[in-house]
Amino acid sequence: METNRPVALDNTGRYMHAQADELRARGPAVQVEIPGGVLVWSINSYAVSKKVLGDPNVTKSARHHWPAFIEGKIPSDWEMISWVAMDNVSTTYGKDHKRLRRLIGKAFSSRRPEDVQPLAKRITDTLLDRLEGAAAAGEVVDLKAAFAYPLPGMLVAELIGMPEEARVAAAKVMDMMARTDVTPEQGQEILLGWRGAIEDLIALKRAQPGEDIASDLIAARDDDGSALSEQELVDTTFAILGAGSETTINFFDNAVTALLTHPEQLELVKSGQVSWDEVIEEVLRVESPLASLPLRYAVEDIPLDGVTIPKGDPILINYAAIGRDSAVHGDSAGTFDITRRDKEHLSFGHGPHYCLGAGIARMVGKTGLSALFERFPDLTLAVDPSELEPIPTFIMNGHLALPVRLSGAASAAA
């Protein structure tokens, strides 16, 4: 095998972990190819990822630090244009990033998870109530569509003040944005689609402000009286919607799948021997809902364990690889084990771009999982695990559907 030849990242999602193992074996930082023939550096080890994420010479601003984007070599219909064309808290750099994070951080105080928990519980109970009939009838249910998908989406939409009809439309756009098998035409449609949906929301909130994050962002002012620009406002609102829903959807999907395929570990949770907090951290480690997030860029040359990433080159953090790094977790790094002592992971990031909503995400995960298995303790998969179809992407880690039976008795009879 030619170890220096760039590997094309798998767009199907089928070989995510196998490819992550291959890339990690090649080195902590290796070049890979993503759609459009773009070459990027994949960071595959835990230690090097933590270093890169905390390095002030690593940025997420394409408009300032990616020469190919600045010089127009990345076309406007590039399949992944939505990931780099935003101007929000996740893509700014330096003083602009600090300004936006300061303004937005007011909406994500340390008390926010506690304040939001009653809303998460109400939405959870509503969704589980809707499933009662299917449980009684022994029907096969797509748990992703009926529970994992709407729970975080409905929660974040209510927090930002987005009406349900608009949330459903925006969710379809986000689903396409997460896929890496789209055409250039679809890539442009995605960009225009999510911007249009959020612009409509901002216009609504200007006319009818409420007690929600979108209204707060419109009204937010820095110490000097400056507000978010129009693009910052639109792009940041979308970032909150996407980050708060898409990753949590996949977390629920992966958590339920892992527990149902490891019934002995599920029993430890049901019996109270292991907490839901331990389950959450292990799922985040071994099945990070975010696989490889595009993109970061080298502000200056970055030397990494014998490899130098040249100034201006794009970078991918391979979360699917770093959570399973044997240098941290030993030979069992790829094994789901809620009893392991060290569940260290970077699934919420590290450094200046650490996820502002990490506390809320953990709260929603605990609220949803505990209620789901309390309501349906005999929950089982309705298909063999090998039949679960992955999302065709290298960005997210999850399944297209999660068929289950909510009643163990009905499942056994089938």
UniProtKB/TrEMBL annotation:
Q: Could you say which residues form the signal peptide?
A: none
One Pfam family named in its UniProt record: p450
Per UniProt, the keywords (alphabetical) are:
Heme, Iron, Metal-binding, Monooxygenase, Oxidoreductase
Q: InterPro entries given for it? A: Cyt_P450 (IPR001128), Cyt_P450_B (IPR002397), Cyt_P450_CS (IPR017972), Cyt_P450_sf (IPR036396)
Segments spanning the bilayer are none
Its family remark reads:
Belongs to the cytochrome P450 family.
Q: What is this protein called?
A: Cytochrome P450
Task: Supply the source organism for this entry.
Answer: Saccharothrix longispora
